[in-house]
Protein 1
Amino acid sequence: MTQRLIIVSNRLPVTVRAEHGEPVVHMSVGGLATGLRAPHERSNGLWIGWPGDLGDLDPRGRDKVRCQLAELRTVPVELDPTEIEVFYEHVSNAVLWPTFHDRVDRLPLRVEGWDVYDSVNARFADAVAEQYEPGDVIWVHDYQLMRLPALLRDRIPDARVGFFLHIPFPNPEIYFALPTRAWLVEGMMGADLVGFQTRRFQGHFRAALRRLFGLEMDAAGYVRWGERRVRLGVFPIGVDTASLATRAASPEVDSLVGELTTPGQRLLVGIDRLDYSKGIPRRLIAVERLLVLHPEWRERIRLVQVAVPSRDRVAAYREFRTEVEGLVGRINGRFGTPTWTPIHYMRRGVSTDVVLGLCRAADVALVTPLRDGMNLVAKEFAASRIDEDGVLILSEFAGAADELTDALIVNPYDIDGTAEAIHTALTMDPADRRRRMRALRDQVAANDVHRWVATFLETLTSE
Ligand code: F6P
């Protein structure tokens, strides 16, 4: 791709940290940030998004941050406290997030704030229009910016715009709970290409288009939308497999693996944002069930559960934390001994090295979301296993289950079934473990984040 790429996401891939009393901006190392770094740099592109809450900085600190952001070719869209509360915390994370993860039971009584959602999307559209030069390609990311493609179409009718939804698109039976169901789809249809993680999510979107507007996708993947044609596509996101494998082989990660390994004890690992879509409570109960159904594992297994704090100003997330921590305490209280604690719970963000160390040291990785667009921890686990060992237990409701078919696939609502899958994983023949892990590794190597970026952008620009 020779055109300049303008990436737009709610959050910029940066973190602002105070160092010696001065704010310093660092580029994040997450999957999306790493995947898009090359086209961003190669095309001399721009990344437009929210730099996070800079409210604690004095005016001089804010100016310093703005200069550093410009050096990184990022353009900040700063949100004021009301916008953070209504656009980010309420509409995006208390309304859209639960609905798109099939959890309408988590919806607040009042599903409102769409005017602020729209005005923030319009501010993003203005920021893009200000930077846009003819020939640029614009790639919009995720559910916080579903109105943006249409708002861009109003401002720059000829722009080439792609939209990718990182989270599930729900079945219309659920999606139709949203009073703004047509308006949000109209927003997405401002794009030339709308991408989904899986065929199922694309199917749900097609069903919504049919029921809302009587429109069908043709055999080539296009939907007629007024004077334009919009292409729908499936682009499962990957991880930076090669660099994760290289880092996993580093002496730093090696020594972590040594520290995490306890002779005579098998290690189960769960790494998630502390989010109710991730299935942590049922996973904990499945481990408890394992200790009841197969008491021979008592004192011989332990689960390290990393729970990365997330969106903790949203009530549902705060309540969820209390639920998880209550369960950890109950299970440890029931089975723990003076020398053994079954669940080692850590509520904090961890470095990539710690993630890789845990993945490499694990006998079993538990990735059991109730609903997930993709789930990159499952892919990181496979990428890290340079020893071609370890078993992945994966929920059938993660997008990753469509690709990672050599995992032990479980229904996370079936607690006894999940407990038995853990037992199967712990007793699996080493040859079977290796055969499965090799297949998983081949899959994540062939479909990495670079391939995802290239395929989406080729499709978007190949008209
Ligand atoms: O999975 C969707 C997503 O937006 C990711 O892209 C992101 O890493 C995560 O949720 C965290 O979201 P937030 O920006 O709300 O912390």
Protein 2
Amino acid sequence: MVIKKRRIGVLTGGGDCAGLNAAIKWVVKTALDIQSQKERGIQYEVLGIRDGWKGLSFTDDNREEYITPLDENIVRTWDRYGGTNLGTSRYNPYNPQINTSKRVINNIGNLGLDALIAIGGDDTLSVAAKLSGEGVNVIGIPKTIDKDLVGTDYSLGFETAVEVITDIVDKLRTTAGSHRRIFVVETMGRSAGWLALKGGESSGAYVILIPEYDFSVERLNELILEGRKGGIRYDIILVAEGAKPSGGKIVCKDETIDSFGHETLGGIGEYLSSEINRCLGLESRSVILGHIQRGGTPCAYDRRMGRYFGIAAVNMLIRKEFGKMVSYKDGQFTAVPIVDVIGRLNLVDTNTMYDTIRYNGSRSILAEKAKEKVNVRRS
Ligand code: F6P
């Protein structure tokens, strides 16, 4: 039997998170597996591309910096570690200000890549979709701690981030209780409230504020006073960075806009903390969890999902299912067209998952409710 040789590339783009290294490891292990190579009649070689799409914009002078061959020995222990050992960036080859997409396509050709596996969220996948439209064989693997990707029930990094939130809230409780203080804890998540909601449910937060439901500061204060009357000594309030009071604006850290056009969110926690202090005269502190949510050791679920997504991506490669993203939907692994995923948002359904009176997770789990999917276009 003639064994054909094929070379593929793998990269991670956008914000780092736990589970990326597991996905890379299992792309490499599955592609290089000797037994499978005999069955497929294809011998794969895997090149790691450093720093996301930036790594494919290399010039003759810096190619070595960005391209690194990967084998099973190199990736053996990677699934145990957070972040991405390939590095990442928010580099956009289709940035209207400096469009390097032609160089990226030429470099893919010069490297002799038969296909590219891109692990990322909406931004990374939007580049993958454009390249696919220009004839590049691309396969996507979903990752984002924000859990805002449509087309899949899971994206890498989310569960580890929820673990981090839970762990930190546990730690804050002792100091909050000792001082009878209110702690306003700000989570990431951009326009989606998943991190705040699931982190808040896991850690037992008293109030959870999410971007999908504009809150009233008066109602929040009322809830705090009700709790105090009921004997609560301290409060944990989780607020998503994209949440805002009704009639108010989303708070941004500064005016910076990244190459995909996103603002840098942050500051709602501090605003709320001072409002509570001003209105109620209760001692309040704010904590921004920030990038800590992207750190730490990957939880068991992210290691397993990274493994399954990595294997599924190579399965798709063999079946030539290009232009698609691995998806985990209703308990099954499947593939969905990347163009159907990008530019849309998977948001918390406040009809079924959120208690708009208590500002917390829904107290109704089995009740019959219209299960409307909240998928909206990204702005
Ligand atoms: O999309 C993931 C995310 O962590 C968001 O939750 C957050 O708003 C953003 O990235 C932060 O981006 P950066 O790492 O560029 O500061």
